[in-house]
Design goal:
With 212 residues, the chain is mostly helical. Helix content is 83%, strand content 0%.
Length: 212
């Protein structure tokens, strides 16, 4: 019968889910560390260049903003691209240029975040499936050992390991995903500050219209 076939795969099914969770945890930790160091570098560069832009704006020295247009940071590249566009075309269309730049860079910032979201939302269910398999196997052993209750207790305790492991995988993944999403949002918001600085530069230098 079909039910008996399910009971037959209960024991190996429990083991498979545990190994799957272990593999998910390894990838999750690797991706969390990669995003941590990568986004920290992005955030550090963002803080530095935004501080410099703020100083230039407060001191009314927008003409010196070109010195910040380098390839060393996300904002520096955006600033370089924006200033080049202003020199050739003026302010018109600048917002679209920055929007396109943001769309290109956003997937790079969100790399591996979809995996963390998927692991965080599905790992508990994988663990629950492993627990179900383990409990099925425990009751099967109970039937074959003439009602020895201790066997079922041991089996159920082993089965609950899968749920625990699933939660251990999911919780760090969800926390990391939310934290990194907040960092990405902050970095992308810094591009808005760069865009406004470029618009102010164009207006202060009489380049609000297209330059022929």
């Amino acid at each position: 019968m079909l039910t008996e076939q399910f009971y037959a795969i209960a024991a190996p099914g429990h083991e498979v889910t545990l190994w799957l969770l272990i593999i998910l945890s390894i990838f999750s930790v690797a991706f969390i560390l990669e995003r941590f160091f990568t986004l920290r570098a992005y955030k550090k560069n963002s803080t530095q260049i935004l501080s410099k832009i703020g100083t230039l704006v407060s001191n009314n020295q927008l003409k010196d903003i070109k010195e910040l247009a380098t390839d060393d940071s996300l904002e520096g590249r955006a600033l370089k691209q924006g200033l080049t566009y202003i020199e050739n075309h003026g302010e018109a269309g600048l917002e679209e240029i920055f929007n396109s730049y943001t769309l290109v860079e956003k997937p790079k910032l969100e790399k591996f975040l979809n995996f963390l979201a998927t692991a965080g939302s599905n790992a508990p269910f994988i663990g629950l499936l492993g627990t179900v398999f383990g409990i099925m196997d425990a009751f099967r052993q109970l039937a074959s050992n003439q009602g020895d209750g201790s066997m079922v207790m041991i089996g159920i305790s082993k089965a609950l390991v899968a749920t625990g492991v699933g939660l251990l995988v999911a919780i760090p993944a969800v926390i990391a995903y939310n934290h990194f999403q907040k960092q990405v949002k902050g970095i992308l918001q810094s591009l808005d500050a760069v865009k406004e600085a470029c618009i102010a530069y164009a207006k202060s230098n009489g380049r609000s219209k297209k330059v022929n």
